[in-house]
Design brief:
seven-stranded mixed β-sheet, 206 residues, aminotransferase, pyridoxal phosphate, transaminase activity, disordered C terminus, 7 strands, PyrdxlP-dep_Trfase_major, alpha/beta, Aspartate Aminotransferase, domain 2, Aminotrans_V_dom
Protein backbone atom coordinates (compact mmCIF):
# COMPACT_ATOMS: atom_id res chain seq x y z
CA UNK A 1 0.00 0.00 0.00
CA UNK A 2 0.95 3.64 -0.22
CA UNK A 3 0.59 6.20 2.54
CA UNK A 4 -2.69 8.06 2.71
CA UNK A 5 -2.49 11.81 2.39
CA UNK A 6 -3.14 13.99 5.44
CA UNK A 7 -6.81 14.38 6.30
CA UNK A 8 -7.85 10.94 4.99
CA UNK A 9 -8.85 8.58 7.79
CA UNK A 10 -6.87 5.36 8.06
CA UNK A 11 -9.85 3.88 9.88
CA UNK A 12 -12.20 4.36 6.93
CA UNK A 13 -9.88 4.35 3.90
CA UNK A 14 -6.98 2.34 2.62
CA UNK A 15 -4.69 2.62 -0.40
CA UNK A 16 -3.47 0.18 -3.02
CA UNK A 17 -0.43 0.67 -5.25
CA UNK A 18 -0.72 -0.61 -8.82
CA UNK A 19 2.11 -1.04 -11.30
CA UNK A 20 0.66 0.52 -14.41
CA UNK A 21 -0.66 3.68 -15.99
CA UNK A 22 -3.43 5.90 -14.68
CA UNK A 23 -5.85 4.35 -17.16
CA UNK A 24 -4.84 0.96 -15.79
CA UNK A 25 -6.11 1.99 -12.33
CA UNK A 26 -9.34 3.44 -13.76
CA UNK A 27 -10.06 0.14 -15.47
CA UNK A 28 -9.20 -1.79 -12.31
CA UNK A 29 -11.75 0.12 -10.25
CA UNK A 30 -14.49 0.04 -12.89
CA UNK A 31 -14.13 -3.72 -13.21
CA UNK A 32 -13.80 -4.43 -9.50
CA UNK A 33 -16.76 -2.27 -8.49
CA UNK A 34 -19.11 -3.71 -11.13
CA UNK A 35 -21.10 -6.76 -9.99
CA UNK A 36 -21.01 -9.77 -12.27
CA UNK A 37 -24.77 -9.52 -12.59
CA UNK A 38 -26.82 -6.36 -12.79
CA UNK A 39 -24.02 -3.83 -13.18
CA UNK A 40 -24.92 -0.44 -14.60
CA UNK A 41 -22.48 2.47 -14.54
CA UNK A 42 -23.40 6.14 -14.90
CA UNK A 43 -20.55 8.16 -16.40
CA UNK A 44 -20.65 11.92 -15.88
CA UNK A 45 -18.68 13.10 -18.90
CA UNK A 46 -17.37 16.51 -19.92
CA UNK A 47 -14.17 15.61 -21.72
CA UNK A 48 -11.78 13.06 -23.15
CA UNK A 49 -11.05 11.13 -19.97
CA UNK A 50 -14.70 10.70 -19.13
CA UNK A 51 -15.16 9.33 -22.64
CA UNK A 52 -12.24 6.99 -22.02
CA UNK A 53 -14.18 5.49 -19.12
CA UNK A 54 -16.94 4.64 -21.59
CA UNK A 55 -14.43 2.87 -23.84
CA UNK A 56 -13.18 0.90 -20.82
CA UNK A 57 -16.72 -0.11 -19.87
CA UNK A 58 -17.54 -1.13 -23.44
CA UNK A 59 -14.32 -3.17 -23.72
CA UNK A 60 -15.02 -4.83 -20.37
CA UNK A 61 -18.67 -5.58 -21.26
CA UNK A 62 -19.89 -3.41 -18.38
CA UNK A 63 -23.22 -1.71 -19.17
CA UNK A 64 -22.70 2.04 -18.98
CA UNK A 65 -24.77 5.15 -19.60
CA UNK A 66 -23.30 8.59 -20.32
CA UNK A 67 -24.68 11.84 -18.94
CA UNK A 68 -22.80 14.32 -21.11
CA UNK A 69 -21.94 17.97 -20.53
CA UNK A 70 -20.13 20.49 -22.77
CA UNK A 71 -16.34 20.30 -22.47
CA UNK A 72 -16.11 23.91 -21.32
CA UNK A 73 -18.71 23.41 -18.55
CA UNK A 74 -18.58 21.63 -15.23
CA UNK A 75 -20.58 18.52 -14.50
CA UNK A 76 -23.58 20.26 -12.95
CA UNK A 77 -24.74 18.72 -9.63
CA UNK A 78 -28.32 19.92 -10.18
CA UNK A 79 -28.47 18.14 -13.53
CA UNK A 80 -27.07 15.00 -11.92
CA UNK A 81 -29.71 15.30 -9.19
CA UNK A 82 -32.52 15.56 -11.73
CA UNK A 83 -31.18 12.60 -13.67
CA UNK A 84 -30.88 10.38 -10.60
CA UNK A 85 -34.41 11.37 -9.58
CA UNK A 86 -35.98 10.08 -12.80
CA UNK A 87 -37.81 6.72 -12.72
CA UNK A 88 -35.54 3.81 -13.55
CA UNK A 89 -32.31 5.70 -12.86
CA UNK A 90 -30.64 2.95 -10.87
CA UNK A 91 -26.87 2.49 -11.01
CA UNK A 92 -24.26 0.36 -9.31
CA UNK A 93 -21.49 2.91 -9.91
CA UNK A 94 -21.36 6.62 -10.67
CA UNK A 95 -18.03 7.86 -12.03
CA UNK A 96 -16.61 11.29 -12.83
CA UNK A 97 -13.26 12.94 -13.59
CA UNK A 98 -12.16 15.59 -11.09
CA UNK A 99 -10.04 17.66 -13.49
CA UNK A 100 -10.50 17.01 -17.19
CA UNK A 101 -6.95 17.23 -18.55
CA UNK A 102 -8.28 17.99 -22.02
CA UNK A 103 -9.83 21.29 -20.86
CA UNK A 104 -8.63 21.99 -17.32
CA UNK A 105 -12.22 22.15 -16.05
CA UNK A 106 -12.46 21.20 -12.36
CA UNK A 107 -15.66 19.36 -11.54
CA UNK A 108 -17.34 19.86 -8.12
CA UNK A 109 -16.88 16.24 -7.15
CA UNK A 110 -17.64 16.72 -3.45
CA UNK A 111 -21.04 18.23 -4.19
CA UNK A 112 -21.72 15.60 -6.84
CA UNK A 113 -20.82 12.88 -4.35
CA UNK A 114 -23.29 14.16 -1.80
CA UNK A 115 -25.99 14.17 -4.49
CA UNK A 116 -25.12 10.61 -5.49
CA UNK A 117 -25.21 9.29 -1.94
CA UNK A 118 -28.49 11.05 -1.21
CA UNK A 119 -30.30 9.74 -4.29
CA UNK A 120 -28.43 6.49 -4.97
CA UNK A 121 -27.02 5.51 -1.57
CA UNK A 122 -26.07 1.98 -2.65
CA UNK A 123 -24.09 3.12 -5.70
CA UNK A 124 -20.29 3.21 -5.66
CA UNK A 125 -18.99 6.75 -6.18
CA UNK A 126 -15.72 6.77 -8.14
CA UNK A 127 -13.54 9.80 -8.91
CA UNK A 128 -10.65 9.90 -11.38
CA UNK A 129 -8.32 12.49 -9.82
CA UNK A 130 -5.40 11.74 -12.11
CA UNK A 131 -4.39 15.31 -12.94
CA UNK A 132 -5.56 16.97 -9.71
CA UNK A 133 -4.64 14.86 -6.68
CA UNK A 134 -1.94 16.56 -4.65
CA UNK A 135 -2.55 19.99 -6.21
CA UNK A 136 -6.29 20.71 -6.00
CA UNK A 137 -8.00 20.37 -2.60
CA UNK A 138 -10.34 17.39 -2.44
CA UNK A 139 -12.36 16.29 0.58
CA UNK A 140 -12.51 12.53 0.12
CA UNK A 141 -14.71 11.79 3.13
CA UNK A 142 -16.89 14.91 2.86
CA UNK A 143 -17.43 14.19 -0.83
CA UNK A 144 -18.53 10.65 0.03
CA UNK A 145 -15.97 9.07 -2.33
CA UNK A 146 -15.73 5.29 -2.39
CA UNK A 147 -12.79 5.08 -4.80
CA UNK A 148 -10.27 7.66 -6.01
CA UNK A 149 -7.46 6.97 -8.46
CA UNK A 150 -4.38 8.96 -9.36
CA UNK A 151 -0.86 8.48 -10.66
CA UNK A 152 2.56 8.94 -9.10
CA UNK A 153 3.96 11.01 -11.95
CA UNK A 154 1.29 13.72 -12.08
CA UNK A 155 0.93 16.35 -9.35
CA UNK A 156 2.90 14.23 -6.86
CA UNK A 157 5.89 14.44 -9.24
CA UNK A 158 6.97 10.88 -8.59
CA UNK A 159 8.31 8.22 -10.91
CA UNK A 160 6.14 7.16 -13.86
CA UNK A 161 4.68 3.70 -14.10
CA UNK A 162 2.73 3.56 -10.84
CA UNK A 163 -0.87 4.38 -10.11
CA UNK A 164 -2.72 4.14 -6.83
CA UNK A 165 -6.23 3.73 -5.52
CA UNK A 166 -7.61 5.30 -2.35
CA UNK A 167 -10.55 3.16 -1.36
CA UNK A 168 -13.23 3.13 1.26
CA UNK A 169 -12.64 -0.07 3.21
CA UNK A 170 -16.38 -0.73 3.22
CA UNK A 171 -16.63 -0.36 -0.57
CA UNK A 172 -13.48 -2.39 -1.20
CA UNK A 173 -14.64 -5.29 0.95
CA UNK A 174 -18.10 -5.16 -0.65
CA UNK A 175 -16.42 -5.49 -4.07
CA UNK A 176 -14.51 -8.63 -3.06
CA UNK A 177 -14.48 -11.18 -5.83
CA UNK A 178 -15.99 -8.96 -8.51
CA UNK A 179 -13.06 -9.07 -10.95
CA UNK A 180 -14.68 -9.58 -14.35
CA UNK A 181 -14.19 -9.67 -18.10
CA UNK A 182 -10.44 -9.41 -18.48
CA UNK A 183 -10.53 -11.48 -21.63
CA UNK A 184 -7.96 -13.95 -22.90
CA UNK A 185 -6.66 -11.55 -25.54
CA UNK A 186 -6.21 -8.76 -22.99
CA UNK A 187 -4.70 -10.59 -20.03
CA UNK A 188 -2.80 -7.49 -18.89
CA UNK A 189 -6.19 -5.90 -18.14
CA UNK A 190 -6.69 -8.39 -15.33
CA UNK A 191 -3.66 -7.45 -13.25
CA UNK A 192 -5.03 -4.26 -11.76
CA UNK A 193 -8.37 -5.58 -10.61
CA UNK A 194 -6.84 -8.85 -9.44
CA UNK A 195 -4.51 -6.80 -7.23
CA UNK A 196 -7.49 -4.84 -5.89
CA UNK A 197 -9.53 -8.01 -5.48
CA UNK A 198 -6.69 -9.70 -3.61
CA UNK A 199 -6.39 -6.70 -1.31
CA UNK A 200 -10.14 -6.71 -0.67
CA UNK A 201 -9.92 -10.34 0.38
CA UNK A 202 -6.99 -9.62 2.72
CA UNK A 203 -9.14 -7.00 4.46
CA UNK A 204 -11.95 -9.52 4.87
CA UNK A 205 -9.62 -12.16 6.26
CA UNK A 206 -7.59 -9.83 8.51
Amino acid sequence: TVCLSPGISHEEYTSVLLQGSGTFSVEAVLQLSSPRNGAKVLLLVNGAYGNRMKVICDTSCIPAEVLEFPENNIVDPDTVSRHLSTPGAEYTTVAVVHCETSSGVINPVEEIGRVVKRLAPDAIYFVDAMSSFGAVPLDVKGGRLDFLVSSANKCLQGVPGFAFVIASKVALVASKGEEINGGVTNVWHLTGNVNLGWYARTLVNA
